[in-house]
Amino acid sequence: MFDIFQLMADSSIFFVSFIFVLSLLIGSFLNVVIYRLPIMMQRAWQAECDEYIAQQHSTPAAINQQDVFNLVKPDSTCPKCQHEIRAWENIPILSWLWLKGKCSQCRAPISIRYPMVELSTAVLSALAAWHFGFGLAGFAAVLATWLLITMTFIDVDTMLLPDQLTLPLLWIGLLISISSPFVSTQDAVIGAALGYFCLWSLYWAFKLLTGKEGMGYGDFKLLAALGAWVGWQHLPVVVLLSSIVGAIVGLMILTVQGKDKSQPIPFGPYLASAGWLTLLFGDWFVELYWQWVLP
Fold first, then answer.
1. Strand, coil or helix: what is 60?
2. I need a labelling partner for 121 at 20 to 30 A (CA). Which of 64, 93, 107, 113 fits?
3. Longest distance between any two alpha carbons in the chain, whole Å
């Protein structure tokens, strides 16, 4: 193990390559998390509701007969024929290409999103590792990349940003700020507080003016977490980037798909993307802005 770390410390190429391969494997696991975590949350909410109703009516709570369902069990199967996915069918990207994007048994199509999540996880993690190099900053940025990718796809699918992901990202950002790989602890704490307060205040202002909810509490927590990583100084960059990208993509979706303008669009993916870009290139964005404002 020491030899591997020594090789990564001595060779940036080996370090980036190691992160790329590792992140391919992690990307395969992230596909599981993206699919299963919302279902696990729904089951937990249902169990809590059943228990509450039983307490209110002074009746025994119904026994939950659902099978075990977590990030490990049951084993992955084809949703159509229930064929259990074997190890050689679960190799990131390669298995999908070998099977030509179809189940080996029933030939039902396998979504291209699975290899795309794996590939994007590997590429973005390798880029973060290359940018920061071997050390605490590099490993922390890779971990943040994994969490942000997971949150992005869950929010796209379900309009949820689970506390199980946003809160660890927040606490990890605050804890690593002790060593200041990105920002100082003071800047991280202020960034987290301002990040939450920024969207919280916008939420209530919009609700008081329109009577509608413009975003969810998960967005507040995600921006707070990002503030802990990039510091309060770069929060305007995150907000500006996410707003611009969100507006452009939102208009494209409404135009191309013809969706109702009142239909909610998840904001988490734009926050996550802007936060990741700011973590890596925040100083460059600020410098570019001032060059444009003060040529």
1. coil
2. 107
3. 73
